[in-house]
Amino acid sequence: MGLNLWKEKFPSPGGAHAPKNLYEDLCSYENLELAFKKARKGKTLKLYVIQFESELETNLKQLQKELQLLTYKPRPLETFILRDPKTRKISKSNFRDRVIHHAVCNIIEPFFEKSFITDSYANRKGKGTFKAIERFEYFARKVSKGFTRTSYVLKVDIRHYFDTVDHEILYSILEPKIKDEKLMWLIKVILKNHKTQRQGKGMPLGNLTSQEIQSLLYFLCSGDFDSSCLNPEESSNCGISYANVTMK
Q1: Has this prediction a pTM greater than 0.90?
Q2: CA atoms within 13 A on the CB side of 245
Q3: Range picked from 79-88, 98-107, 142-151 for highest mean pLDDT
Q4: Phi-psi region for residue 165, left (φ > 0), alpha (ψ -120 to 50) or beta?
Q5: Whole-Å CA distances, 36 to 90, 100, 101, 236
């Protein structure tokens, strides 16, 4: 699609009508408490969650202080290999850092949500894997005229996507949209915590912030999503995006 079509179709979420205190909102105790509840979901019996929650107010206020003073530093990532069946290197963040990730996404998600096409299914409320499959089946019936004619599917998967994201290019895309220096500082701190052999490259696979940012970056830079996919009901070209995979 490219940058020009993006600019024509979607205004910058950090534009003139965006809230002026994004970072202040991010640092609020209410936002951090909500972020904790999201990070805790499904993990209430984990020892590290129980320990964090046992002194919840103290821990959240400490995070709040570090954010407000711009002294926040994430803990080193824990990495491990997952085979499902593809081999993936997963980077697991400390729980306190996962709270920060949710706090960031609480702020940026509402803006970026407006930017995605209908058929982008990863990391979005009301979407997900099963919805993507249902939509694919609908498109399959539509394009094949009820499975009465031969149709074709193009599947595109960016190789080593998370490992090769260029930070400077990413910042050049995010900064004009977010327009908040402190929020950008925090995003950079989170990204730089991921140590790779190629300096200034890559995002930690497993971080919520990485998933949120990759959805935006992939859609923006994906050439296979042309303008027809913005209105799939009016076109014979139908596309579905899930994370860094596209089917069209």
Answers
A1: no
A2: 8
A3: 98-107
A4: beta
A5: 21, 8, 10, 44
